[in-house]
Design brief:
Layout lengths: L1 H14 L3 H4 L5 H4 L9 E5 L2 E5 L10 E6 L5 E5 L3 E2 L22 E2 L9 E10 L5 E12 L2 E9 L9 E11 L6 E3 L4 E5 L2 E5 L6 E7 L23 E8 L2 E8 L6 E7 L3 E5 L3 E11 L5 E3 L5 E7 L2 E6 L5 E9 L6 E5 L4 E2 L3 E8 L1 E11 L4 E11 L8 E9 L7 E9 L6 E10 L5 E6 L8 E2 L3 E2 L6 E9 L3 E2 L3 E10 L11 E8 L6 E7 L5 E7 L4 E7 L9 E2 L3 E3 L1 E2 L1
Parallel strand pairs: 17-25, 18-26, 36-44
Antiparallel strand pairs: 1-2, 2-6, 3-4, 3-7, 5-6, 7-8, 9-10, 10-11, 10-14, 12-13, 12-15, 15-16, 17-19, 19-20, 19-23, 21-22, 21-24, 24-26, 27-28, 28-31, 29-30, 29-32, 32-33, 32-34, 35-37, 37-40, 38-39, 38-41, 41-42, 41-43
Length: 569
């Protein structure tokens, strides 16, 4: 059954059918899983509203409403949507599998409105339980005559040795009301790298312009050292025209004829540093020109550093071909790093960087909690790596406190951790410590000249209010065996205001004379004024006590005084 449903969905999607055609027949199993989007985004491109719900099947009763900006009256409601293959990729290829997993964006037809202006887009559909879900102001539309690029092409592929190409195409003013086209007045810009070149079309909107590629372009997205843009194998020329406050942007892909021979020269073939520190490397990238000379690569060419098969960080070259950086990737073993160029402009196999990690420490997961018992429970993972054979068998770790978490750190307790000289130790630190006062705590190993120290982040202790049990009494006393005694008291905050704690549990305890342990006798809830009371049968002489154990994170525990009751025959 699923295969038939998926095949039908693929066909409907590729053919561009509407939302009704995309609906999958409801079965008993499907009824239990009503529509719940994994994500939901909306945008407007060329007068089309594009919706992405993170699912292949759109929600039921989907509608898009348009309003003039600043008004409440709807000027249009759209109920027909088409599933589009974006960027030339079919949304549901053969064998696409479960439609819940594979997201398919959908869009409206190009909107035809009576008047130019700014419009607000609202989206409405049925929720998981059939309830109405409405997203106001989800996106907006500036409905105006806008620029439109067509027939874009580049005359030839480029190389670092021959970086120029000629771009051509047409730019017109497009009227979305009727599709009319007029010549584009003025100039638009063609940007490559950080250089923007003005381009003037002729009277018919046609343009031809020589463009020099900088040699650092990696894709159509802005470079981000923390992420890898899509398509690192072709540069793009970005074309931008503007009219009536509407920008039109197109990216013209230019092929790279070949990657020039290049080489990476590291400042040092070895990276040495203590365990847990960040690696710092640098070097130069050059490329071989047709005359046989080696020249620095253009500024902005990307260099990749693989510290593990699936871990990579990037740097950019400057105008002299230099790259350098410190990565937020700690040295954790002696596996070599691979340094290579990541650009279609050069062909280079990269250099292997030898890594020598020396003795050091690091803390893993760290938690600190102020308990109701007035203790601070601290837990941390502690790693000691490449410990010298001359190191002691134990190291001291400090528990520190600061009022603001930044300055004035003082040690309020210590512990020792066993090491393995000549090896590696990974262990846990779990301690209940005395409360050092409000503020922040952290755990620190100060280190030695041979072993790098480390410290955890500061964790703020959630403060608790002190509580008290007053007016505690067990009566009557003495009392005859078999008769009733009543244990009473009052639970309040311990500050000057003595605010009562209402509706919380108080536990009763009894210890017979001569015994060494307390026995739980039951519980009650406090009244609105914090008072509590419970009757018990007197069986033997002993001492009574009441306790509040504070099961939330607001209060500290409290214990009453001890009250002895003599039981007579």
């Amino acid at each position: 059954m699923n295969n038939r449903i998926n095949a039908a969905l693929c066909t409907a999607t590729v053919l561009g059918l509407g939302a009704a055609a995309l609906a999958v027949p409801t079965t008993a199993a499907q009824a239990a899983t009503a529509f719940k989007p994994l994500q939901f985004s909306a945008r407007v491109v060329h007068e089309r509203v594009i919706l992405d719900f993170g699912k292949a099947v759109p929600p039921k009763d989907l509608k898009v409403h348009l309003r003039k900006k600043g008004t409440t009256a709807r000027v249009a409601t759209i109920k027909h949507f088409t599933a589009v293959p974006e960027n030339g990729i079919e949304p549901c290829p053969d064998g696409c599998g479960d439609p819940v997993v594979h997201a398919v964006p959908i869009h409206t037809d190009p909107l035809k409105l009576a008047a130019f202006g700014e419009y607000t887009v609202d989206v409405e559909y049925d929720g998981p339980q059939g309830e109405n879900v409405s997203h106001k102001d989800k996106t907006s539309l500036n409905y105006q005559v806008r620029p439109s690029f067509t027939n874009l092409q580049a005359s030839k592929e480029v190389t670092l040795a021959a970086p120029e190409t000629v771009i051509s195409g047409d730019i017109k003013l497009y009227d979305p009301r009727n599709g009319a086209l007029k010549p584009y007045p003025g100039t638009f810009t063609a940007r490559t790298g950080t250089v923007a070149t003005p381009v003037a079309p002729d009277a018919k909107g046609h343009f031809t312009s020589k463009i020099r590629i900088s040699g650092a372009e990696t894709g159509s997205l802005p470079f981000d050292p923390a992420t890898k843009p899509f398509d690192t194998h072709s540069p793009f020329i970005h074309l931008t025209g503007e009219a009536n406050g509407v920008k039109e942007q197109e990216a013209l892909r230019v092929g790279v004829l070949q990657g020039e021979a290049s080489r990476v020269t590291l400042d040092s073939p070895t990276l040495t540093g203590p365990f847990g520190t960040d690696g710092k490397i640098g070097g130069t990238v050059t490329w071989k020109a047709p005359d046989g000379t080696w020249k620095p690569v253009p500024a902005g060419l990307r260099v990749a550093v693989n510290t593990a098969p699936s871990t990579v960080k990037y740097m950019l070259t400057d105008g002299t071909g230099r790259f350098q950086g410190s990565f937020p990737l700690p040295l954790d073993d002696d596996e070599p790093w691979q340094v290579r160029t990541d650009s279609p402009w050069v062909a280079e196999e990269g250099q292997k960087l030898t890594v020598d990690t020396t003795a050091g420490t690091s803390f893993g997961t760290f938690t600190a909690e102020y308990l109701a018992s007035k203790a601070v429970r601290v837990s941390a993972k502690f790693n000691l790596v490449e410990i010298p054979s001359t190191a002691p068998s134990w190291v001291r770790v400090d528990f520190q406190h600061s009022a603001d978490g930044k300055t004035g750190w003082t040690t309020f307790d210590t512990t020792t951790v066993r090491t393995e000289p000549g090896g590696t130790t990974t262990g846990s630190i779990d301690r209940d410590l005395r409360y050092p006062g409000p503020g922040f705590v952290r755990v620190q190993y100060a280190g030695t000249p041979d072993i790098r120290g480390s410290v955890t982040p500061a964790v703020r202790l959630i403060d608790r209010k002190a509580t008290a049990i007053s007016d505690f009494n067990a009566a009557p006393e003495p009392v005859k065996r078999g008769q009733a005694i009543t244990v009473t008291g009052k639970l309040t905050e311990a500050d000057a205001g003595r605010a009562p704690l209402a509706g919380v549990t108080v536990r009763y305890y009894f210890k017979a004379t001569g015994d060494h342990s307390w026995t739980g006798m039951g519980t009650t809830k406090t009244a609105a004024d914090g008072s509590f009371s419970r009757k018990f049968t007197a069986n033997t002489t002993g001492t009574w006590n009441a306790r509040y154990l504070a099961t939330d994170t607001t209060y500290l525990r409290a214990s009453s005084r001890h009250d002895e009751v003599v039981v007579t025959p």
